[in-house]
């Protein structure tokens, strides 16, 4: 206080200038009050400009205070000068107010003032904070045309905003521009933020660019969480090269690679049509102790093989070649090939693969193996083959599951004879004894087939379905409409069925 009273006015104004630039709100208020009350200074544009600039304080400043100060200037008959408007632009870059900024800018241009480099930057930053992205980009383009050097912090602000809004194309465009301009002071924090944000959003181009520029060159060592996001991005876009390099980075660390690491790499190779490499990943997983592949792991393989009848044939050939190269072949990979053959209605090829399974895989067939074959038997109406495979499943001591029984029931239903239908009911009974219940479609098929054969057991089945809370209105209606017809047909066919049973 004593310093401000005793020192020269020029020194006090210099202190005011420094404090306002810092956004020291309380200090500026105190100095202005001292100049007016103790030093006899009349309110003027310089004092108001300092008060406006003090509102750059993030915590104490506000757009409302700036608007009030401009109103006070009008009331006191003080005309804002260029410095005043620049102070307004700077304060509104911190506390955005689109309407107030546009009013000030209109007045600024009407007085033929010229924007300084600071003014350009503050306007662009204000538009960004107002989420007026197009206007902010317009200012940036104008700055470049005017030959004004854009400061790194403004570029950073653009990139941060674009990452937050998910506009990674624009964020990437700015980063490419800066790199091409040989800008050396792009912060590591910004690169990190871009890689983290882009990879979480699975934006391939921005992720790849950042990885190549900073990670491959050794400038950035992202944590494992970001590496996983990058790996997933590579998998989604079929970029096996990026996925492989992420694996390189992860492999250099002490943490053991988990199934999801391999699965992302596997999917990247599949999406990139690098078939052998994808299957090789499965053999590596099969050889590990911490990342054994599962049926879920190979689901993308099955979906890939479904695209063409030739794909499962090629996959089988590839697995045989990998086996010759002493690679460990997982049963789940063979199951996917069998399932794909079934999807292509080629049961013969599926059985051929199954016969080779014991040679290729040391673990042998699984429940999923037989379930896939039973589905093929159902589609091809090959109950004889299904019964043979069921016996083999029993001999190999492979435990069935609910889906196994469900498909065996369907196979028997598709047979169509009374004997086949009895077998379906037998499997249905065994299924219930194990605490399992068929899928709705299987139950409806049983009810309809039983109705066609005049089988009285369907009434108990429909009642049990209803007891389990299933919607049976449609089934009841269909059975009610067709029961008499099925019963009559059953009576007419009874003699010939007795002869058939006798022959058996």
Structure description:
This protein is mostly helical and 504 residues long. The chain is 74% helix and 0% strand. The protein has 28 helices and no strands. Helix 2 packs parallel to helix 4. The protein is elongated and about 115 Å long. The C terminus is likely disordered.
Distance between the termini: 117 Å
Tally the helices: 28
Give the SSE string. HHHHHHHHHHHHHHHHHHHHHHHHHHHH
Overall average residue pLDDT: 86
Low-confidence stretches: 494-504
Count of beta strands: 0
Using brief descriptors, characterize the structure shown.
504 residues, mainly alpha, 28 helices, elongated, disordered C terminus
Furnish the topology, listing elements before pairings.
Layout: H1 2-6, H2 9-22, H3 25-37, H4 45-53, H5 63-75, H6 82-94, H7 98-110, H8 117-129, H9 133-145, H10 152-165, H11 168-180, H12 188-200, H13 204-215, H14 224-237, H15 240-251, H16 259-271, H17 275-287, H18 299-305, H19 310-324, H20 331-343, H21 347-360, H22 367-380, H23 383-395, H24 402-415, H25 418-433, H26 440-452, H27 457-467, H28 473-503
């Amino acid at each position: 206080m004593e310093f401000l009273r005793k020192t020269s006015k020029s020194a006090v104004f210099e202190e005011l200038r420094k404090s306002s630039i810092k956004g020291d709100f309380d200090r500026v208020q105190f100095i202005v009050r001292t100049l007016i009350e103790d030093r006899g200074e009349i309110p003027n544009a310089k004092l108001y400009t300092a008060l406006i600039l003090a509102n750059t304080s993030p915590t104490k400043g506000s757009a409302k205070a700036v608007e009030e100060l401009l109103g006070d200037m009008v009331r006191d008959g003080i005309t804002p000068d260029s410095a005043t408007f620049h102070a307004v632009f700077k304060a509104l870059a911190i506390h955005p107010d689109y309407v107030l900024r546009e009013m000030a800018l209109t007045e600024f241009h009407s007085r033929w003032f010229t924007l300084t480099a600071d003014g350009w930057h503050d306007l662009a930053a204000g538009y960004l904070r107002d989420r007026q992205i197009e206007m902010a980009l317009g200012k940036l383009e104008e700055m470049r045309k005017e030959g004004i050097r854009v400061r790194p912090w403004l570029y950073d602000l653009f990139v941060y905003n674009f990452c937050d809004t998910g506009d990674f194309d624009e964020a990437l465009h700015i980063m490419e521009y800066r790199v091409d301009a040989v800008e050396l002071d792009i912060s590591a924090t910004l690169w990190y933020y871009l890689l983290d944000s882009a990879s979480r959003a699975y934006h391939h181009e921005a992720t790849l660019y950042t990885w190549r520029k900073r990670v491959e060159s050794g400038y950035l060592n992202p944590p494992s969480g970001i590496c996983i996001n990058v790996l997933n991005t590579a998998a989604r876009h079929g970029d096996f090269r990026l996925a492989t390099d992420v694996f390189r980075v992860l492999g250099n660390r002490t943490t053991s690679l988990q199934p999801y690491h391999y699965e992302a790499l596997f999917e990247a190779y599949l999406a990139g049509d690098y078939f052998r490499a994808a299957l090789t990943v499965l053999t590596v997983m099969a050889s590990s102790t911490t990342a054994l592949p599962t049926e879920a792991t190979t689901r993308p393989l099955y979906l890939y093989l479904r695209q063409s009848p030739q794909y499962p044939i090629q996959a089988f050939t590839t697995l045989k070649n990998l086996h010759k190269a002493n690679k460990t072949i997982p049963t789940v990979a063979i199951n996917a090939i069998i399932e794909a053959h079934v999807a292509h209605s080629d049961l013969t090829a599926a059985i051929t693969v199954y016969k080779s399974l014991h040679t290729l895989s040391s673990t042998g067939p699984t429940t999923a193996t037989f379930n896939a074959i039973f589905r093929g038997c159902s589609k091809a109406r090959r109950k004889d083959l299904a019964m043979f495979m069921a016996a083999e499943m029993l001999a190999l001591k492979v435990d069935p599951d609910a889906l196994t029984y469900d498909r065996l029931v369907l196979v028997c239903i598709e047979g169509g004879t009374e004997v086949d239908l009895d077998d379906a009911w037998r499997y249905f009974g065994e299924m219930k004894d194990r605490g399992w219940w068929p899928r709705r479609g299987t139950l409806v098929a049983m009810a309809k087939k039983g109705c066609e054969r005049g089988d009285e057991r369907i009434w108990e089945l429909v009642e049990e379905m209803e007891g389990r809370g299933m919607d049976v209105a449609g089934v009841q209606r269909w059975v009610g409409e067709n029961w008499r017809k099925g019963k009559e047909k059953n009576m007419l066919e009874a003699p010939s069925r007795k002869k058939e049973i006798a022959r058996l």
